[in-house]
């Protein structure tokens, strides 16, 4: 991979920072976050089926979806969109319903690098350092990395 | 004041913790957060007029309001409600529109102390330690303290 996921998990802070570049224009990367028919094709780890019960990618909107693993186990997630600015910025809450009220606040900047390339830059802030650490220990990096690899393939194609 | 505001602003962390007790049942304290006609009577510092353009205190709802100082200067705030559980819990985003995208995630627990008394316990998590520090430097403690004094008077009355 030339476009690897870079994850920064500073000790003692409740947040995770990341960057991931794509060989695709910012409008294509943004649309792949806005359109639920595209989102379900890339979000989450390999081998999981995603079904979006709701996906209103607008300021004041919200979402709820399930990831189903090959054994049929279900993992539900939900949140609200505080701000969505086209081709520029998304700010949402994020909750794994298996850990109720352990909600994170997720900032996502869509940066136009020119030449049809885009950088995603994100910060996810948890309620506690321990909650942040638990999220990392759950395999978050692999899930993100695999999801962004699929997004890469979708937007390059 | 027997029911003082206790604020904890730990160095190097992006959050603020607080507690405030009330000589009122938890249902009354919760209702004073749910009903916008009551909210506008207590939220914010003394001497400001509050007008709620929107206040849907339900999971997935949202709010926007203005505080007007005696000189007529306006300060707008907005956010979304991720979770509202009656007489128990509220989780919302919070943005001062004068500092766009510096959004905080606010957790608020309504605790029934018995004997018709209630404890509010809150955590506000900012995007950065610097943003948290700027919020504190802006006079947040005095504004909260004055607002909760009015809430005290309203719910005791």
The helix/strand order of chain A is EEHHEEEEEEHH
Largest interface by residue count? A-B, 24 and 24 residues
Rg of chain A, Å, rounded: 15 Å
- Poorly predicted runs of 5 or more residues of chain A: none
Number of helices of chain A: 4
User: Which secondary-structure class do the elements of chain A indicate?
Assistant: alpha+beta
What is the distance, rounded to the nearest whole angstrom, between the alpha carbons of the first and last residues of chain A? 16 Å
Quaternary class: homodimer
Tell me the β content of chain A: 35-45%
Shape of chain A: globular
Taking the sheet with the most strands of chain A, its summary is: 8 strands, antiparallel
Fraction of residues in helix of chain A: 25-40%
């Amino acid at each position: 991979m030339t476009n690897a996921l870079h994850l920064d998990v500073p000790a003692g802070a409740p947040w995770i920072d990341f960057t991931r570049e794509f060989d695709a224009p910012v409008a294509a990367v943004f649309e792949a976050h806005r359109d639920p028919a595209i989102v379900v094709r890339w979000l989450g780890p390999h081998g999981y089926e995603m079904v979006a019960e709701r996906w209103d990618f607008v300021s004041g909107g919200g979402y709820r979806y399930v990831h189903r693993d090959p054994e049929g186990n279900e993992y539900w997630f939900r949140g609200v969109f505080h701000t969505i600015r086209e081709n520029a910025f998304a700010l949402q809450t994020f909750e794994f319903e298996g850990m109720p009220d352990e909600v994170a606040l997720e900032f996502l900047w869509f940066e136009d690098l020119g030449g049809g390339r885009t950088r995603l830059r994100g910060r996810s802030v948890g309620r506690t350092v321990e909650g942040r650490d638990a999220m990392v220990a759950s395999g978050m990096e692999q899930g993100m990395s695999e999801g962004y690899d699929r997004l890469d393939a979708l937007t390059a194609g």
